[in-house]
Amino acid sequence: MFPGEMFALGTFALITLLGVLASIAALAVIVYAFYDLLVKRESMSVEEKLLWAVVILVFNFVGALVYLVAVWGGYTGLLDDRKLSELERLAELRDKDAITEEEYQELKEDLLEDMRRQG
């Protein structure tokens, strides 16, 4: 065996090893993205979860990275709109004397706590 052949074989093995390690890392990111999506994100609607799942499945590693950057960057989807609508509805009920001020404050704190937990 010539020294050049030995180098070529070592280079091939190194490239193969790096490819396997990169594939394992990419798979770990995808699995974590699905775990985060399906287990940790209780605030997302089924439609949002389905959309993100399709993005992750179609775009694999890049889709998983986009999802993780979006949720870690503060993306909450429709959650804020729903919670704000709920707060407005509570304020209307309070203004119409359908609920007391104490009930309003308690319900408002519950909603805000949910938003803090999920954000």
SSE diagram, text form:
Layout: H1 3-40, H2 46-72, H3 79-95, H4 101-118
Helix pairs in contact: 1-2, 3-4
Low-confidence stretches: none
Secondary-structure-based class equals mainly alpha
Mind telling me the C-alpha Rg?
A: 24 Å
Count of DSSP-assigned helices: 4
Number of domains: 2
How does the major sheet shape up? none
The level of helicity is over 70%
Oligomer: single chain
**What is the succession of H and E elements?**
HHHH
Beta-strand percent range? under 5%
- Nearest-integer average pLDDT: 81
The CA-CA distance between the termini, in Å, is 61 Å
Shape: rod-shaped
DSSP, total strands? 0
Structure description:
With 119 residues, this protein is mostly helical. The chain has two domains: 1-77; 78-119. The chain is built from four helices and no strands. Helix 1 (3-40) crosses helix 2 (46-72) and helix 3 packs antiparallel against helix 4 (101-118). The longest helix has 38 residues, at 3-40. It starts with a helix and ends with a helix. The relative contact order is 0.08.
Can I get a quick summary?
The protein contains four helices and no strands.
What structural keywords apply?
119 residues, mainly alpha, 2 domains, 4 helices, 84% helix
